[in-house]
Amino acid sequence: MGALTAALLAVSTTPASASGTYSGLPFVYGAGAWEDDWTNEGVVDVNTNRTSNVTCLWQTVLWADGYLSSTADIDGDFGTQTKTATAKWQSRYGLGADGSAGKNTWTEAGTRLIYLFPEGSEQYLTLYYPGEVDGFYVNRDANGNYQFWDGDGVKRTAGYNYRTCS
To answer: What are the two backbone dihedrals, phi and then psi, of residue 147, each rounded to the nearest 5 degrees?
Structure first.
């Protein structure tokens, strides 16, 4: 019975699958070559991981590309404004405009990342997302977890299971 309870708890705290390829990790994660880091991320939308730091990272992408008008819109809550902005972003890049940031959407966003430099080791990387309107930096730390600066200029870890940005 204890094993069944542990398995159910593990399933309930992990993000939904993105076309069956989600890494299963609680953070936006990368290892080795950085170019494919965002190809296996979980879904963020109005139903899945709605309030999370990964949603906050996605909203930062939308803001940098001009689909959210202000850094005040980066709040980590995937509501109707974020859904509409996501659908417009997806249309712009020739994706199915369902308003849900899943595998294809994260993969497309990841193709825009630019490698800047390692800091201290090969694993700790600094990357830049050059949006249509503005840009932002992301780091991949020594554990492979992604960090970004939110709309308030605070460095956050891109986790699925919590929300510290608002």
So the answer is: -130, 150
Q: At what angle do helices 53-64 and 80-92 cross, to 10 degrees?
A: 50
Domains of the chain, CATH where assigned? 29-157 (1.10.101.10)
DSSP 158: -
DSSP one-letter code for 37: G
How far, in Å, CA of 143 to CA of 157, rounded? 11
To 10 degrees, the CA torsion angle through 18, 141, 159, 88?
-60
Mean pLDDT of the residues in the chain:
85
Question: Going by C-beta distance under 8 Å and a sequence separation of 6 or more, which residues neighbour residue 45?
Answer: 78, 83, 86, 99, 100, 101, 102
d(CA 67, CA 81): 10
Rounded to two decimals, the pTM is 0.84
